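Memo to structure team: turn this sequence into structure tokens by end of day. - J.P.
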Amino acid sequence: MASELRDLAIFGGTPAFNEKLYVGRPNIGDRELLFKLLGEALDRRWLTNGGPIVQEFERRLADFLGVKHCIAICNATIALEIAIRALGLTGEVIVPSFTFVATAHSLQWLGLKPVFCDVDPETHNIDAEQIETLITPQTSGILPVHLWGRPCPIERLAEIARRHKLALIFDAAHAFACSHKGRMIGSFGDVEVFSFHATKFFNTFEGGAATTDDDDLAEKMRLMRNFGFAGYDEVNSVGTNGKMAEVSAAMGLSSLACLEEFVATNKLNYESYRSSLAGVPAVEVIDYNEAERNNFQYIVLQIAADHDGLTRDELLAALWAENVIARRYFYPGCHRMEPYRSERSYQLPATEELAQRLLLLPNGTAVNESDIERICQVVRLIMSHPREVKERLSSANAARKSA
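Reply from structure team:
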């Protein structure tokens, strides 16, 4: 284990890990159940089009989340697009820039204009107090994100949406199995959208879902995900192909069987990171409200803006050399990506700062206590010698450029 600078890979030492350790490596649920369900699907030769496994998956999720309707969809981006279309949104929709670009793209793809709002620097969620300054006659909705699974200011957002007669869609891609005031995320706003992508702690290989208590909205979304078919050969609305396949729902049910195990592992890892990184210079691990249900999926470090000149990206480079493939989220912010940066100039100071400071570390069942101890030791060593690390990285970059 690295204890001196010469042990670090950037100084010629052996990398801490022989194989790359990634953020978001998939959790695998109950294999026996998965293979059983796949066998049943193959025997039935019913592989898609709302088969019995998808139907069971939707029922189980609706019960777990305490919501009337769960519509399983092929992925969360299509789920957002279907929800946006079903709500009849037009013109402009207010959205945080500090999110995965799919949140904004789901609007742009449908011909709507995402209007970016800054975030609260403490919670990293959309700053509700800035939303009303962005509302125009063209605004039709608000699309906040429960970042890291930590709920948005739901009541304040709902009040703003009601007063201005705006739709409220929550991007809950990070928030499956999380709660707000004892109520599960999933039944707030007009609709909430979950991601079950392979990198999420709960996955269906690839998939997503929209959840709502609105009967009419649920029916519209069910029609839209299946080309608008209302019967065997009856199409009465525009639709797309957003159906979840049986194989994905089978993976979802096998993941659901291990949900508490996944959460417990994440929490144990989170507590290990918090303990091991306590007191490390310029490093803070974000916390979770343990009075609520959390999935503890993300290990998020906030790196001080100026620690003897060592930046977040330099820490990232040193970690990658150790085969710890940490990630910077959500760099550089949607408003600095195309096509958005060419369309409008935004002043989003909290988003800009967070995009330069945050770093995510590996979590989930793919890492163990020994891995975490080694990762934290490397972080501690790097952050305890910022000037030497910075000089070494600078020399290495100069050598690469001159080669």
